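Q: what does this look like with NDP bound?
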Amino acid sequence: MDRYAVIGNPISHSKSPRIHSLFAAQTGQDLVYEALLGPIEAFAATVEAFRAAGGRGLNVTVPFKLEAFDLADRHTPRALAAGAVNTLAFDVDGILGDNTDGAGILRDISVNQGCPVAGRRVLLLGAGGAARGTVLPLLEAAPASLVIANRTASKAAGLADEFTRSGPLRPLGCGFAELAGQRFDVVINATSASLSDAAPDLPDGLYAPGSLAYDMMYGKGDTPFMRAAREQGAARLSDGLGMLVEQAAESFLLWRGVRPDTAPVLAQLRAGL
Ligand code: NDP
C-alpha cells in the first residue's frame, strides 16, 4: 500500500489521518496515512527516512512549514507565493513542495459557503503563515478589493507589498485602527487570537449587509471572533473546519489525481467535535 503521513510537533491532535482515511475509503484508493511526530532538530532526516522507506507524500504542519519549503527541490506557484509548504510529494524528480491552505479556504468560502469572492470587498486579518498562504488564491479569485490588516501594522504593509505585482489588484496593508469607516463583504480571521480565547481588537461597523465572517480557527461552538462578528452584524459565520478538510482534499488530489467529495467527510468531522 502507498504510504502517506502528516508530520508536525505536536501531532497527536491531528485530524488529518482520519480525513485522509475517509477520503481513501470513499475513492477506493489503496493507501495508508499515519501521524508522524517530527523531532524539532531532525525534520529533514525524518522526512528522508519516511521517503527512503517508500513514503509517497507528506502533509506538513506546525512548526515545520518553512523547513519543508527549504527541503523541496521544486515548488508550485502557490507554494512560492506562500513561502511555506504544507504538502510534499515524492517522485522520480525529487521532492515537490505545494501549499494547499489558501486553495482550501477559497473553496470552503466559495463552494461550501456559497459565497464567491469575485467582486466582493475582502478583509484579511493577520500577517502570519496562514494569512500569507491565502493572499495569492484570494487575488486570483478577483475580489473588488483586498485589505490585509494586522495587529503589527508593518507586517501587513510588508505582506501587501509582496503582492503588488501579482495582478491588476493591489492589496493594501494596515493596522486595525485604520479600518475605521470601511465596510467589507468577506472578513477572514487568519490571526491566532482565538487560540488565546480572544478576538482581534477591531473598530465597529466593518460588516456590510449580507457579509460573511470566517475564522480559520475551529472548534465546538462559535469562536471569540465569530461571537464578536455576530454582535457587529455579520450575516453569516463560519469556522475553519471546512478549510481543514478542503486543504486535505487538495493534497489528496495532488497525490492521487482524484478529488474526494468533502461534504460527507466534513459532516463526520463536525459531528465528532
Ligand atoms: P502565526 O503565528 O504565523 O501568525 C499569528 C498571527 O496572529 C499574526 O498576524 C499575529 O499578529 C496575530 N495575532 C496573534 N494574537 C493576536 C491577538 N490577540 N490579536 C490580534 N492578532 C493576533 O499563525 P498562523 O498564521 O500559522 O495561524 C493563524 C491561525 O490560523 C491559527 O489560529 C491557526 O490555527 C489557523 N489555521 C487554520 C487552518 C485550517 O485548516 N483551518 C490552517 C492553518 C492555520 P502580530 O504579527 O501582531 O503578532
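DSSP finds ten helices and twelve strands in the chain. Residues 241-256 form the longest helix (16 residues).
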